[in-house]
Write a structure and sequence with these properties.
It is a single chain. The chain has about 120 residues and is an all-alpha fold. It is built from 6 helices and no strands. The longest helix has about 40 residues. The radius of gyration is 23 Å and the shape is elongated. The model has no long low-confidence stretch (mean pLDDT about 80).
Length: about 120
Amino acid sequence: MAKYLVQIIVMGVQVVGRAFARALRQEFAASQAAADAWGRGGHQSAGASNLSGLSLQEAQQILNVFKLNPERVQNYEHLFKVNDKSVGGSFYLQSKVVCVKERLDEELQIQAQEVREKGQMPKT
């Protein structure tokens, strides 16, 4: 009886160990992908995605904005008004639209800051 109990415990530990190792590998792969995105898209943009919970691409899709400029971002007002709770809209969707606008505004600020920094660099 004790022999079977020990075998069950050992098997359980092996299963948990494999699951833990698999989770660790997945986390490492996700961390590498985030590091690659950090390098490609700029560290500030990746940080903004982490804070807002929205990627730049997702935010652009929601507002149907493919080229990021301040005039197009201002078009969010239509979606905001359509989703107003007083006219039968969804408060959740209205909140999502506000988050999208904030995310795109952050990206515009980051781009403007990068342009300013490039302009201040001494030419060699």
